[in-house]
Amino acid sequence: MTAITATSQKAPISSLATIRTKADLAGITLAIILTLAVIVPLLVVALWAFSEVWRYPHLLPQQFGLRFWNQTLSRDDVWDALGLSLRLSTVVVAVAAVICLPASYAFSRMRFFGRDTLFLSFLAAHAFPKFGLLVTIAAIFLRLDLIGTFWGVALIQLVNILMFMIWIPVAAFQAIDKRMEEAARDVGAGPLRVFWSITLPQAAPTIIAALLLSFVTTFYETDGAWLIGAPEIRTTPVLMIGFINNEMVIQYGAVLSVLLWVPSAIALIFARRFIGGDAFARGFGG
Predict the structure, then answer these.
(1) What is its main location (predicted)?
(2) Domain map of the chain by residue range?
(3) Contact by Cβ (8 Å): 212, 169
(4) Helix and strand counts by DSSP (H, E) for the chain
(5) Residue 272 above 80 pLDDT?
(6) Which end of the chain is more exposed for a tag (fewer CB within 10 A), N or C?
(7) Dist. CA 158–CA 136, nearest whole Å
(8) Which of 233, 265, 255, 240 is nearest to 91 (CA)?
(9) To 10 degrees, the CA torsion angle through 83, 216, 223, 247?
């Protein structure tokens, strides 16, 4: 009887181990497939950027070089578009910080009528087909004479980053150790002193990460910049699309694409240090 009981106990354990192993293998396989789906197109673009001769049916370029880098970077429109993108991103993120950070603090610390509904409303720009929303906004901007203007593009890009600038800072403010704030108040610190000395330093790394993500998102935004800004306002992504669609030399677009990887990589590496996978969940549930 003892032997039969021991055998019956081992069987379920062995079955669970087998199921877990199969699940792990399936997860690893899917992770590899997704990684390849992301990396392979990036490698192809990188090869095009540094290739001078690449003809079918060769799998790799027959000649590498920097000739197209020199030609691309010597164009005035490239530097004009890059400067415009940097100015736009800086202005949009600065305006978003002024508007959204106080709102994030209010969402994280206050309870008021319609709070949850208003909080969820910032998902609207990402919950519906984006281009349809942009067309509707463009019709409004046309009446306001904002089409083809710097501030028209800035406003449309501001809408695009509201979720980042609200949800992530809310999670940052909710993660503050309130015992430290209470201790500061107990020794006589006023609300403003508590905020600057206790609350803000703790929330600052995550807020900085949100600012970086917003900057990168604004820098790469294409649909709104093209629909609202064209033809007068040409950001770097819009120029890159023009190169790809209108230029016979594919390397021009590839070079710009590789250049655009740099700010994204820097911002995401820095932001990943501070934003965990549960940041959005904490912001939603606060």
Answers:
(1) membrane
(2) 2-49, 68-285
(3) no
(4) 15, 2
(5) no
(6) N
(7) 16
(8) 233
(9) 50
Listed residue (161, 158, 109) closest to 283, CA to CA: 109
Q: How many CB atoms lie within 10 A of CB 154?
A: 22
Cα 134–Cα 138–Cα 143 angle in degrees, nearest 5: 160
pLDDT digits (tens, 9 = 90+) for 177-194: 788 888 888 888 888 888
Q: List b or e across 247-285, with b for residues whose CB sees 16 or more CB atoms inside 10 angstroms.
A: eeebbbbbbbbbbbeebbeebeeebeebbeeebbebbee
From 80-94, 107-121, 218-232, the region with the lowest mean pLDDT: 107-121
User: What's the pLDDT band for 23 if we cut at 50, 70, 90?
Assistant: low
State the pLDDT at residue 125: 65
CB atoms within 10 A of CB 191: 11
Two tokens, residue 240: 């890159």
Please name which of 104, 166, 210, 102 lies closest in space to residue 218, comparing C-alpha atoms: 210
Structure token digits, residue 218: 């604004």
Q: Assign a CATH topology to domain 68-285.
A: MetI-like fold (1.10.3720)
Tokens of 262: 């740099």
DSSP 193-207: HHIIIIIHHHHHHHH
